[in-house]
Amino acid sequence: MDAKTQPQSTASAVTREEVLQATQAVTHRFDDEYFAKLDKEEGYPHDYIKALMDAKLHTVMIPEEYGGMGLGLQEACVIVEEMHRSGGVGSMIHGQMFMMGILARHGTDEQKRKILEEVCAGRVRLQSFSLTEPNAGTDTAKLQTKAWKEGNEWVIKGQKLWTSRFDYTDAFMLFARTSPPKDPAKPHQGISAFLVDKRQVDPTQYSSRKIDVMFNHHTFEVFYDNMRVPETSMIGEEGKGFRYLLDGLNAERIIIASEAIGDGRWFVDKAVNYAKERVLFGKPIGANQGVQFPIAKGYAHLEAADALRWKAAEKFDRNEPCGGDANIAKMLAADASWELANVCMQTHGGFGLAREYHIERRFRDTRVFQIAPISPNMVLNYVSQHVLGLPRSY
Ligand SMILES: Cc1cc2nc3c(=O)[nH]c(=O)nc-3n(C[C@H](O)[C@H](O)[C@H](O)COP(=O)(O)OP(=O)(O)OC[C@H]3O[C@@H](n4cnc5c(N)ncnc54)[C@H](O)[C@@H]3O)c2cc1C
What we know:
This protein is about 45% helix and about 15% strand. It is of the alpha+beta class. The two termini are about 35 Å apart. Bound molecules: flavin-adenine dinucleotide (FAD). Flavin-adenine dinucleotide binds near residues 138 and 378. GO terms for molecular function: acyl-CoA dehydrogenase activity; flavin adenine dinucleotide binding.
């Protein structure tokens, strides 16, 4: 099942089809060569993002009263899947999608009015999420960045790692410890969430360094050096930031699953087309079971991930608990896209390694889903503990 035949969402079928068409109207203008050039030059996709934002696609989940599309997570899935299916990447707008959810649920009226309206109008890019730290990767609640109050400002000090798109964002969400945990066994207590408007911050109070990674991704190490932000930057209540973070995670898992499914479909299309066209020993290579079975098997795994992704997204849009489904969908989708990346490369033989075929680039792109934002191990930890009721192993 692909985005065109997905189940019903909170919005009407016409609206869903319209969302897909609106996304394709943008994605069809950006081909493999566009992304290959950026990859080679390590360029940032400014034109792509502008086109997506001009089409308001980043506002899909923002309520209409702030100028957003007011649709659900299923429509967000349609958008990011199409972005990946057409050879692009969704990370520049996916953060906006789930961060909006955190803001819409927990932000003050002023934050919502100011930031959400500005984001919808395209005046502000809210593209970064500053959580992970060198000593607190998967163990997020052990973060060491601190924030304390001085007058009517918060002062923030600490080091973050992997804050993607930091140099290209106007505003970002940041997590810092504002008090020690009341119960030492619950380190998530005392962490607060901030919405930082970079335009209000003295640029000498922070610095960033790009991390060189294996694909065209713009991610940064960031140092907050007594960075002062207005007291109104705090989201919701002091010390409740980790709870707000968890609120946003299911949406993130389901959106990432959709991106991996889009990648998987791209690999299936490329592998099938090539297997039909490439003739050796007097017949297309795809006539050999050794070539077609791996594609068929990867496709079957992709369809299973797809079904679970829609199940999770439907539950999310109905406000039902969906943690298990969201995590499993993410893991299955990431596994299927990685399996298909390997199958697609193998199907292409030596040409799979040649840059002009784009396979090796997308192979590098899709590998990240095995690591970020959550690894298969941590999904299995979640399923073992929260779905199966086994003892926590860590
Ligand atoms: C390209 C990229 C972009 C990113 N963008 C962002 C971003 O925008 N904002 C942000 O805040 N973060 C971002 N991250 C961070 C990302 O979420 C982390 O890399 C991820 O949470 C893992 O942390 P780590 O890299 O420190 O690995 P570690 O936490 O050190 O884990 C290393 C390995 O050990 C395994 N492991 C750890 N604990 C357990 C356990 N208890 N049981 C079983 N296995 C375990 C993990 O699964 C992993 O395979 C990004 C990362 C990458 C690579």
